[in-house]
């Protein structure tokens, strides 16, 4: 599912305010958005660090981009049906993460949802009218994560139906994790890595305290909510309060439920997930957002997912969280 600008808006990176001796900050463009990195105490040449970051991000794009016709993912999407294709460890790992979250959520997360996203006007072409039910039904026939088989013994994938894989719902998180591993190999003990709002945090900030992030109040005006302390984890937020359109007075969210073919229509405004990796947090936040308040909280509680929910109510917003999220509260 396309990860749009609201991911960045949903997380106010209060931790990025850290500066001073021993702090290195890097930033740039990638995956249609921006990345920001704060390294504390790592003794390394800044120019060499930037080049290493750019190389790592280029590798991710070379494997996972849907915009590059020569990317490995694009080639796989063009591959024949019912033929095992040997792929890189990168593509294999990201598809395996996606498949696991798809299974866990009963299909609420689905990397083949692209045809529905395009149909509803959140792809290259905007819409001025609601698609007909027949068009939704046809698009649904092109969606189904189970149509991508993962080989049990080799790094190989196979399509069993004419689906197209779009990993934008997890690629930014995976890119964050790749950069985190890069810094780990360099001996970094304390860092914050962010791509388009997806985060990975390790150690402490320049003040020697846990990194803190603030979740934005889900309104057009915005505004900082609670600041949570997080370290040694990935963080992602999914919400529908910025990317939507209205037709005839009805609001249509950019988040499409792959199970029904229609935009989500429930009061859950945003979900923030803390997970071992940013890729997992990225996919889980989308899945929980699709599921809606009751099912999302039930799944997060059952599976020990650290999730923080903001729900629209008559009086404004209601905030609550799964039991596993409690250690991150201020």
UniProtKB/TrEMBL annotation:
Family of this protein: Belongs to the ApbE family.
Cofactor comment: Magnesium. Can also use manganese.
Alphabetical UniProt keywords: Cell inner membrane, Cell membrane, FAD, Flavoprotein, Lipoprotein, Magnesium, Membrane, Metal-binding, Palmitate, Signal, Transferase
Single GO MF annotation: metal ion binding
Gene3D superfamilies xrefs: ApbE-like domains
InterPro entries: ApbE, ApbE-like_sf
Topology term for the membrane: Lipid-anchor
Organism in which the protein naturally occurs: Exilibacterium tricleocarpae
Protein known as: FAD:protein FMN transferase
Enzyme nomenclature, EC number: 2.7.1.180
Positions that bind Mg(2+): 169, 282, 286
Pfam families: ApbE
Cofactor(s) listed in the protein's UniProt record: Mg(2+); Mn(2+)
Chief location of this protein within or outside the cell: membrane
GO-annotated cellular components: plasma membrane
Signal peptide, first to last residue: 1-17
Cell inner membrane found in the keyword field: yes
Enzyme class: transferase
Catalysis performed (reactions): L-threonyl-[protein] + FAD = FMN-L-threonyl-[protein] + AMP + H(+)
Compartment list: Cell inner membrane
Listed SUPFAM superfamilies: ApbE-like
